Amino acid sequence: MSGYSEDERLRLQQLRALRRRWLRDQELSEREPVLPRRQLGPVAAFWERFLQPGGLWRQQVFKAYQTGGFVLTRVLIPAWIILYCLKYHVMKTPHGVVMSNPRIFPGDRILETGEIIPPLKEEPGEHH
């Protein structure tokens, strides 16, 4: 005996019809999905309103962002690079380097006052 019996064929036909109906039911209509209304917190509600296209605040923030980017890339960074090159490669004495005063020995004359530095007193208990 080859093939299915009448009962088996009827059962398979019914299963196929059920599967087709189930697949058709899985397609969403225009009214679906029905979702509950979103309840936004205060911060999320602010950003939802703030980021609406065409808002005045959004335009102002975008202008400030563009201006800040322009100033950073076209003014501050090049000025920093130029200052760095001048400070460390061009100037003879780099900025911030303090020149030390010349050494003063006993008997030397101070130029501003004309005073002569007296010799050091020798202490009798020294080993030198």
Nutshell version of this structure?
The chain has helices at 6-25, 42-50, 56-90. It has 128 residues and is mainly alpha-helical.
List strands and helices in order, with pairings.
Elements: H1 6-25, H2 42-50, H3 56-90
Walk me through the structure.
It is built from three helices and no strands. It is mostly helical.
Number of strands: 0
What structural class do you assign from the helix and strand content? Answer: mainly alpha
Helical content class? 40-55%
Number of contiguous helices: 3
Shape: elongated
Average residue-wise pLDDT: 87
Provide the gyration radius in Å. Answer: 45 Å
Q: What proportion strand?
A: under 5%
Unreliable spans are none
Task: Give a short account of the largest sheet.
Answer: none
Strand/helix succession = HHH
**Alpha-carbon distance between the two ends:** 128 Å
Keywords:
50% helix; 3 helices; 128 residues; mainly alpha; elongated
